[in-house]
């Protein structure tokens, strides 16, 4: 293929990426993956079930078949693929992530230019307040956010493989819906957990843990990690909770963990995507910009995290690579 033509095609593919994302969101918003799974899978049946015009359904589904979200056609019937099956209304699905990204976060990205020029969160520009403030008084968005965090657990099952937690008490700081805790407790029968997050998040974690692994090995604590963390843990996890904070605030959280740690065998584990300025890869770089759009945050390099940990009295003991380009930084008291 001519190099100029290939470049033009690549440019068009990048430009239209948002269209594909919104088509996927629209299908999920309309409940189409669930309707297809239930057998209401023709253009006519989908239009009747969703209250949409049949032509509109047909044109949407034609594109989603083209990008392999569904197979089939509107007359004989569409069928779910592994992609659309992951978007049905079922436990651990990506449905709520898709809805959140297609609504609030898509709106935030509409302000990308101003956000990049000013380092102001696109979400704050769009909604007039920071993301976490907004979630505090919008229950529907908060629920989607927590369920989206729960769904983003592609590496959680590998954590107890990378880190020895047998017979130990771990503290999940900023636990969100408690999915990391659930994965560890399911894999390590003699581990115990202390789960900490803000007041409005703890009930979500409690409900999720009750339905998955139970609460008999769990202690729930409402609190603010920037002020203190629960003492008495052998391992402290900070899983995807640092990107929205300044370097000084992150050091403060590390110092709170250092104050809670009581022995030289204890470890602090930071679970984050790391960016690299040399030979950057797509996923961490994309999520780094997404953090700017949503909460004004950022991903950091290994070197930066090492520096911040050292400021708080830790040293990086080991680095473990996990799925979905996630890294575990395992730190010991210096």
Tell me about this structure.
With 334 residues, this protein is α/β, with parallel strands linked by helices. The protein has three domains: 3-85, Winged helix-like DNA-binding domain superfamily/Winged helix DNA-binding domain (Arc Repressor Mutant, subunit A), CATH 1.10.10; 95-149, no CATH class; 153-333, Vaccinia Virus protein VP39 (Rossmann fold, 3-Layer(aba) Sandwich), CATH 3.40.50.150. It has 18 helices and nine strands. The protein has helices spanning 3-15, 17-29, 32-37, 43-50, 54-66, 82-85, 95-102, 104-109, 112-118, 122-127, 131-136, 139-151, 159-162, 179-187, 202-212, 247-260, 282-295, 302-311; strands at residues 70-73, 77-80, 169-173, 192-197, 218-222, 235-239, 267-272, 314-322, 326-333. The protein has a seven-stranded mixed beta sheet with strand order 5-4-3-6-7-9-8, with helices on both faces. Helix 2 (17-29) packs across helix 5, helix 7 (95-102) packs across helix 12 (139-151) and helix 14 (179-187) runs parallel beside helix 15. The longest helix has 14 residues, at 247-260. The chain is globular. It starts with a helix and ends with a strand. The model has no long low-confidence stretch (mean pLDDT 94).
């Amino acid at each position: 293929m001519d190099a100029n033509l290939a470049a033009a095609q690549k440019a068009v593919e990048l430009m239209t990426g948002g269209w594909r994302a919104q088509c996927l969101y629209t299908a999920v918003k309309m409940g189409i993956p669930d309707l297809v799974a239930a057998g209401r899978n023709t253009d006519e049946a989908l239009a009747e079930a969703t209250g949409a015009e049949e032509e509109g359904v047909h044109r949407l589904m034609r594109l989603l078949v083209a990008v392999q979200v569904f197979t089939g056609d509107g007359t004989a019937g569409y069928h779910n693929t592994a992609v659309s099956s992951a978007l049905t209304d079922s436990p651990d699905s990506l449905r709520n992530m898709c809805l959140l990204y297609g609504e609030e976060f898509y709106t935030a990205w509409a302000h990308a230019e101003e956000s990049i020029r000013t380092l102001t969160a696109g979400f704050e520009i769009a909604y007039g307040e920071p993301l976490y403030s907004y979630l505090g008084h919008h229950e529907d968005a908060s629920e989607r956010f927590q369920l989206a965090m729960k769904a983003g657990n592609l590496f959680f099952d590998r954590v107890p493989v990378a880190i020895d937690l047998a017979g130990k008490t771990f503290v999940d700081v900023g636990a969100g819906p408690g999915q990391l805790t659930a994965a560890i407790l399911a894999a390590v029968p003699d581990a115990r957990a202390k789960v900490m997050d803000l007041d409005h998040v703890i009930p979500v974690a409690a409900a999720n843990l009750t339905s998955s692994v139970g609460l008999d090995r769990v202690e729930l604590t409402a609190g603010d990690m920037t002020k203190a963390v629960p003492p008495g843990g052998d391992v402290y996890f900070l899983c995807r909770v640092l990107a929205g904070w300044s370097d000084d605030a992150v050091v403060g959280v590390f110092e709170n963990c250092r104050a809670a740690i009581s022995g030289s065998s204890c470890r602090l584990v930071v679970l984050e995507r790391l960016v690299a300025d040399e030979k950057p890869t797509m996923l961490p770089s994309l999520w780094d910009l997404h953090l700017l759009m949503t909460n004004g945050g950022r991903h950091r390099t290994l070197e930066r995290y090492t520096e911040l940990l050292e400021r708080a009295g830790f040293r990086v003991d080991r680095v473990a690579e996990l799925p979905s380009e996630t890294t575990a930084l395992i730190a010991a008291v210096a």
